[in-house]
C-alpha cells in the first residue's frame, strides 16, 4: 500500500512539475504524458495503434491514463501481444476505451455516472471510495493540457469483448 501511495505521489509531483514547466497547460496530451516519464507503455501503445496524431489533435479529450505500473500488472505477455501489428484493432479498442470526447474534469463527475468512451461503450464512474473508473482508481486528477485533460489511473481498464 505504501509503495502504491508513494508511486501515486511521485507521479502527481512529476505531472504538476511538468505542467508548471509547460507554462500551465501549453502542451498537448501526448507531450504532457511523455514529459511525465511514467507513461512509456501507454505512449508506445498509442504509437502502435496509430492514435498519437489524434491525441495531439484539437480535441478536447479526456484520457484515463494508466501508468507503466498499471500495464505491468497485466498478465505476462499481454502488452507484447497487443503491440503486434496483427492485434492493432484490439489495441485501438482498449486505448479508445480510456478516452472520452470532451474535457471532463473531476468536478464534472457524478456517482454511478455512465460516461461514453470514444471506443463506443461506456465506463462507470464510482465516487463511493475515491474516484473509480470501472475497476481503476484515479490516483491523480485534472492534469490540464492544451487539448483536454488527463486523469491518471492505476489499472488498465478493458472493454467487454
TrEMBL record:
Pfam families in the record: Fasciclin
Keywords: Signal
Superkingdom of the organism of origin: Bacteria
One Gene Ontology cellular component: extracellular space
Signal peptide from the UniProt entry: 1-22
Residues annotated as domain FAS1: 26-157
Protein name per Swiss-Prot or TrEMBL: Fasciclin domain-containing protein
Amino acid at each position: 500500500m505504501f509503495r502504491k501511495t508513494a508511486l501515486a505521489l511521485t507521479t502527481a509531483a512529476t505531472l504538476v512539475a511538468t505542467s508548471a514547466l509547460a507554462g500551465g497547460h501549453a502542451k498537448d496530451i501526448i507531450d504532457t504524458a511523455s514529459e511525465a516519464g511514467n507513461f512509456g507503455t501507454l505512449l508506445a501503445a498509442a504509437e502502435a495503434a496509430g492514435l498519437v496524431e489524434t491525441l495531439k489533435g484539437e480535441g478536447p479529450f479526456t484520457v484515463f491514463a494508466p501508468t507503466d505500473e498499471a500495464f505491468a500488472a497485466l498478465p505476462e505477455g499481454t502488452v507484447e501481444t497487443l503491440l503486434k501489428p496483427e492485434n492493432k484493432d484490439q489495441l485501438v479498442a482498449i486505448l479508445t476505451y480510456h478516452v472520452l470526447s470532451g474535457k471532463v474534469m473531476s468536478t464534472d463527475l457524478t456517482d454511478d455516472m455512465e460516461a461514453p468512451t470514444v471506443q463506443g461503450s461506456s465506463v462507470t464512474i464510482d465516487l463511493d471510495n475515491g474516484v473509480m473508473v470501472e475497476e481503476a482508481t484515479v490516483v491523480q486528477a485534472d492534469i490540464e493540457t492544451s487539448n483536454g485533460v488527463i486523469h491518471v489511473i492505476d489499472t488498465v481498464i478493458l472493454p467487454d469483448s
